[in-house]
Amino acid sequence: MFVLTNAWHALGRHRAYSILTVILALVMSFDAIVSSAVSAKSTAAHGTEYQSQQPTAVIRPGAKLQSQLKGDDAKATTEHYLTFTDYSPIAVNAQSKSISFTYSFAETVPVRQSDSLKAIPGSADESADKTGGELLMRSFYDAKAVKTNDFGAFKLVKGKNLKYTDTKFTGALISKELAEKNNLSVGSKFTVANPTDASKKYTYTVQGIYEYTDPATGTTYKLAKQNPNNVIYTAYATAYTNGLDPEKSPKGTWAMPNLDITFMFDSPDAYDSFAKIAKKNMPKGCELSSPSLEAYNKKLEPLDGTASWMRIALIVMLAVGGVLLVIITIMRTWVTRRDEIGMALVTGVTKPRLAWQFILETLMLTVVPVALGLLIGGFTAKPIGNALCGFETPMSGSIVGSMIWDSLGAIVVLAIVAMFGPVVFRNRNLFKPATVGSEEKA
């Protein structure tokens, strides 16, 4: 009890050092546990969470081939369109290697505008005879195909989704901008014409009105049909009923739909295996990519960036803070208290007892602040991670356990440093006169 009381009073006599130690211990422990949570989330996102992804894969024109496709040259463009026959070798070879996958698809054709549906103009439009039309009609086989829409993700602001299996369904989705331009609403009817035969018309009902949540292109377009807001989304069953099918349309004309198949896998490993096979059977100029994995990795960029700078900040904090704590402890227990140590020894206090007192002082200054920093950091790591990078970074038992043991190790080191103050004190210094500004070591 005597040692504990002395330790408590000593902290008050060296208040500046005590306050600095408490602040550093609190801040360092808080920073360590929050940084560890963010880092652990980043690691998991690239590890177990990445492996739990169900990737999609598409085969589309590469940059070089894409630059050769022209919206006003049907022959030069549609000859590069893929058909089911082009995809077949890839699918067959993958199945022969026991690679499990499912698939969906979408097809796209230009259609001509009408009095009931005028397209948003382009900056340098050509005649519909050259472009096939001012609008694009994209038909989805099912809801899965919507997820890889290269015009961008969209959401309905009015109306209902498409019906994919009803061959008599004539509903379509149009953009908010197109609806406003033509004064259309849900339930309105509009007509478009065939890309190569203007006399052949198709009538649709506005099933829903959409807007893009993540548009994939810019804001100015040479041709009207290149504007994503001029895209009409329908069900493949509807397009098939109207005869707009890649197996029924000759290449070289805009009536030939652009077929886009989406492959879906149970794991990234299955996708990687499929990619190896696909590259060997890839149509010339085309490239394989995974829109879902690309979107997933893009989503992780804020998390990875935050985890990176927090790791650096933590290293700096621990290095600088650790050195400061050691220096403060030495100043508090060695340099400024030589007279106190000497007086205690003269009055009969033993070195072990003084060492124990200094250890208690260090524990008082570190245990509670460290525990408080870990506690606050543990409860706030999740919302802090969400605020910094848009990801919740929940605390786990392994992180807490690791932080506790690391903190205890650091506290023990500081306690040992403090203990050496009286232990290394030389008894002969008791009889030396004090000198102003003396740098003599105790």
TrEMBL record:
One of its GO terms (cellular component) is plasma membrane. It is found in: Cell membrane. GO terms for molecular function: transmembrane transporter activity. Keywords: Cell membrane, Membrane, Transmembrane, Transmembrane helix. Residues 313-423 form the ABC3 transporter permease C-terminal domain. InterPro entries: ABC3_permease_C, Macrolide_Exporter_MacB. It holds the Pfam family FtsX. It is a multi-pass membrane protein. The chain crosses the membrane at residues 309-334, 354-379, 399-425. It comes from the Bacteria. PANTHER family: ABC TRANSPORTER PERMEASE PROTEIN, MEMBRANE COMPONENT OF TRANSPORTER-RELATED. This is ABC transporter permease.
